[in-house]
Amino acid sequence: MNLDALTPIFVSTVVAATPLIYAALGELVTEKAGVLNLGVEGMMLVGAVVGFIVGLSSGSLVLGYLAAACAGVALSLVFGFLTITLQANQVATGLALTLFGAGLSAFVGRSYAGQPIDGAGPLHIPLLSDIPVIGPLLFSFNLLVYGSIALYFAVQWFLNRSHAGLKLRAIGEAPSVSHAIGHPVLKTRYFAVMFGGACSGIAGAYLSTALTPMWVEGMSSGRGWIALALVVFATWKPLRVLLGAYLFGGVTVLQLYAQGFGLHVPSEFLSMLPYLATIVVLVIICRDPKTILLNQPASLGKAFHPDA
């Protein structure tokens, strides 16, 4: 196997990992505030269909991504109202949000199924894109791929270097103490949930306008659940989310290239590889509870009300 054969595999891995990075980093910030939103899959599907429809109708993918982010925020606000304001069970509400998002996206997108769209193509960066080997490896992606890297650095800086990020982490660890010293717990949690919704919406729009430039019902194919697993896999660390996303992206791409390399493996087994890898990784990590509890926000999934 030479370098020319490895280059498309590397590029495909990065492209496949991009929606996982957006969704997982958004969920990471949400969970750092102490809120567990299992509705990532539903928000991704709604973002995918809204981004596709707006992008196709307006001819502008930028408007499509903005609309997808807004759609994700709208769904996340429904989740936030039920769980933060009304203190509904976060697990049950998140599961309901996924089911609602799947049904809503199928209904809204039924007349657009199978229609193609001019997807987000790779950027051509003068001089850099023309460098042998390095150019195709590093400078042959669309803008959202580079945006996912920028999002990682932004989240890393926000959580570890900014005053607002430190307050958000404090709220995720001890909301009662944070409230006692004057931190706006509910407001911060709302913003965290909205950020997670926006990221999930963009992740979904990436699927329908870049990865597979068309709308297909249920096209997220469980990526929202993989993103949720990534947060646990990364033990709530942004860098590990990034690396884990590329790992799962590589496993996803493997099913496309394995048979081309002469591996006589049933296609059904290759299709289940990403989900099998998710289960295996979670089982390995959860063998040592201390590994999870070390970085898990102490109030994750627990309702809080200032008057309680």
In DSSP terms (H or I, runs of 4 or more residues), the helix count works out at: 14
* Overall outline: globular
Q: Using the coordinates above, name the CATH class.
A: Mainly Alpha
Output the radius of gyration: 20 Å
Beta-strand share of residues: under 5%
Overall description:
With 308 residues, this protein is an all-alpha fold. It has a single domain (3-295), classed as ABC transporter involved in vitamin B12 uptake, BtuC (Orthogonal Bundle). It is built from 14 helices and no strands. It has helices spanning 3-32, 40-58, 61-85, 90-108, 134-138, 143-161, 163-173, 175-180, 185-211, 223-233, 238-257, 267-271, 273-286, 289-293. Helix 1 crosses helix 6 (143-161), helix 6 crosses helix 7 and helix 10 crosses helix 11. The relative contact order is 0.20. The model has no long low-confidence stretch (mean pLDDT 88).
Task: Present the secondary structure layout.
Elements: H1 3-32, H2 40-58, H3 61-85, H4 90-108, H5 134-138, H6 143-161, H7 163-173, H8 175-180, H9 185-211, H10 223-233, H11 238-257, H12 267-271, H13 273-286, H14 289-293
Helix pairs in contact: 1-6, 1-9, 1-10, 1-11, 2-3, 2-4, 2-9, 2-10, 3-4, 3-9, 6-7, 10-11, 10-13, 11-13
